[in-house]
Design a protein that fits this description.
mainly alpha, two-stranded antiparallel sheet, 2 strands, globular
Amino acid sequence: MDYLIFSFSLMLVYIGLAQLLHVQFGLLGIPNFGVVGFWGLGLYGTGVLYVSYSMPLIVAILLASLITAAVAYILSHLVLQRSGQAILAATLAFAAIVATLIITEKDITGGVQGLGTIGFPFADVASRNVIYFFLLMVVVVLLIWISAKLRDSRMGRSLIAIRDNEELAASLGKDTAGTKRGVFVLTCALMGLLGGLTAPLHQFLVPYLLAPSLTFAVWIALVLGGKGHNLGAMVGVFATFGLFDILIETYAPVPAEQAILLPNFKLFCYGVLLVMIIMFRPAGMLGVDGPRTRARPATTPAGDASVKEG
């Protein structure tokens, strides 16, 4: 039961990361391939502050998120005005740099030996993992709700305009550079927050947690569900992480000698799903959900009114 709660808690983290990626890429068009880097900064930042400096867990998570925001702010000034390919390469390289520093700076991070132990904030409660699961659920639901409100707002329409034609949006007086930096920094800080919230789940941090597979899994989930739909990220995570990592790897009656093949089988299925989506449903499972606008009341033209009075 504890493992099931752990798995569902991790799935909530993936949904939150995919939702933030939906804002970055689906609404604004920023191809961030360094998701695991920002998430990892929050994860290890929380661990270092909690273990090495004995900070309270909540304070460590918030401070690690601020550190992630500061790093994202510097990176945004360096790469966001480049082409999409340059942003993709730069963010991917950033994630690799973070993973390398985690291994090499062993005096701070513990290196390959790991860092821990990080306890739950409700240490004296018997069902603390269940309470923490619902805490994560509240955070992720808030992210989904804010994302939906953002998409339907005036700000959301500005983001979509910048994504579709940044030069045209700038010619209309939009601060495209400032908007992209602000949204990028905020969403990356929230990725760091999710990383900090993940630290108590693993309790002991090791470098392999920062593998690029997390970034690819989040991207695959977003593409499968639909990058243009607010709930596409959630559906994509259910169809990938929920189906393979929870249902098949945990409950499928797979013989022990063949269980080692499951990770490769999962990647194979991901590839097949991506090819099918690209061929038959390019917009994803849920397609594109445009911003909603308030309906304006119908008005009667002045000419029609005069005819009725006559």
